[in-house]
Structure formats: structure tokens, C-alpha cells
Design brief:
This protein is mostly helical and 217 residues long. It contains seven helices and two strands, in the order H-H-H-H-H-H-E-E-H. Helix 1 (2-10) runs antiparallel to helix 2, helix 1 (2-10) runs antiparallel to helix 3 and helix 5 (125-135) packs antiparallel against helix 6 (144-155).
């Protein structure tokens, strides 16, 4: 979906870009200007490196398909009812906390993977890691900040700021330093980080399984 947003921006179709990003974020997108569309896209793609890629792969590595499917069930339940509905308040709290616990290790692995990916793509790997250490704890989630702060550092941009949810304006702490303004090209850049991070993880996991198999032999 990030690439769909990017194509709209390159076609100078801001309304279309707002609609595309509105399909992947919870904030109101109708009034976003181009830098804010980019920020929303970069933030959600970076967060999804953990939720949609590294965490499932991590649990598949340590427990096979059953554990990976169990993780996806927890993550899906959290996205549906986590802290969102008074009717499901207790269930929402429990699912959100369980999701936080499940993602704790993968989120920190992801920060390392993004740093390695930044080095591969000749982004700022040093700043990726330093921003993860400095700013990850500023995020309201105990896990999402690791990927977002690392991505912000690697691309030399600042994430966070004011968001609007159902007409209510709220502030999220800044992550990263604004070395350059947000622009459309940062969307494919963060998508490259996602692909490279998952690829590096698969390669390292394959090596680990190979070595472990050698030990067993």
C-alpha cells in the first residue's frame, strides 16, 4: 500500500494519496498535506516491519507455523479491539498487553535489522541505531517506536507530531531529527528498508537453522 501512496504522490494526485493512506492508518487523512501524507505512510510502513513481517517470521523460527499463526491471532485481535471499545474494554486491554509482550523481542531485533538495511542502502546506519536508542521510548507503544525511530534516523527525517483522530487533535512525541524535509521519495525508501530487513532476517534465520542442524548431526 505504501507504493500505491507513492504513485499517487508522483502523479500529483494528493486526494488519491490521502485516500490510499487512509486505508492503512487510523488518523483522519482528509486534510493532510503532502509531507503529512508521507509521514503517515512512513510511520505505518515502519511499524508494520515489526507487526507484519519480523514478528511472524520470528515466531515461525522458534515455534513453526502453529506459533506464527498464534501470533497473528493475537495481533489481529489487538488491531480489532485493543483499547478501542468500551464494550470490549477488558478483552481489548488484555489483547493489547499480550500483543505488547509478543512484539517485545521482535521490535528490538527490527531496530538492528533496519540499521543493517540502512547500511546496505547507504542510508545513515549510525543515526538509525542512535535514534532508536534515543527516541524509541517516546512512542506510546513499547515496541513500535523502535522501528519508527530507526527508520527516521536512517532517512534523516523527523516522525511524530500532531495527528487528528475522529476530529480530535493529539500530539505524538517527535522521533528523529529533521535533517531534510519529508518528501515523496521517503516512501519507497522506507519500503526498501522493509524488504531488506525481512530479507536479512530470513538469511540470518537460515544460517542459524543450518548451524543448529549441523550441531544436531
Amino acid at each position: 500500500r505504501g507504493w500505491a501512496v507513492y504513485r499517487r504522490l508522483k502523479d500529483q494526485d494528493l486526494e488519491g494519496a490521502r485516500r490510499e493512506v487512509g486505508m492503512i492508518v487510523g488518523r483522519d487523512t482528509e486534510q493532510l498535506d503532502e509531507p503529512e501524507v508521507v509521514r503517515a505512510t512512513v510511520e505505518t510502513v515502519a511499524e508494520n516491519i515489526v507487526d507484519a513481517v519480523i514478528s511472524p517470521l520470528f515466531f515461525a523460527l522458534i515455534g513453526g507455523a502453529p506459533l506464527a499463526m498464534a501470533y497473528r491471532a493475537v495481533n489481529t485481535l489487538d488491531s480489532m479491539v485493543g483499547y478501542k471499545n468500551e464494550k470490549y474494554q477488558n478483552l481489548g486491554w488484555a489483547s493489547a498487553r499480550l500483543d505488547d509482550i509478543a512484539n517485545w523481542i521482535p521490535a528490538r531485533i527490527t531496530a538492528v535489522l533496519i540499521t543493517l538495511s540502512a547500511w546496505i542502502h547507504r542510508y545513515d546506519a549510525r543515526r538509525a541505531w542512535s535514534m532508536a536508542l534515543r527516541d524509541a521510548s517516546k512512542h506510546p507503544s513499547p515496541n513500535s517506536g523502535w522501528a519508527e525511530a530507526a527508520a527516521a534516523g536512517s532517512l534523516g527525517i523527523r516522525l511524530g507530531g500532531y495527528n487528528v483522530y475522529k476530529g480530535i487533535r493529539s500530539f505524538r512525541a517527535y522521533m528523529g531529527d529533521m535533517k531534510q524535509p519529508l518528501e515523496a521519495e521517503h516512501v519507497p525508501a522506507v519500503c526498501r528498508l522493509l524488504v531488506s530487513s525481512s530479507t536479512v532476517f530470513v538469511i540470518l534465520a537460515g544460517l542459524l537453522l543450518y548451524v543448529r542442524g549441523g550441531w544436531l548431526l
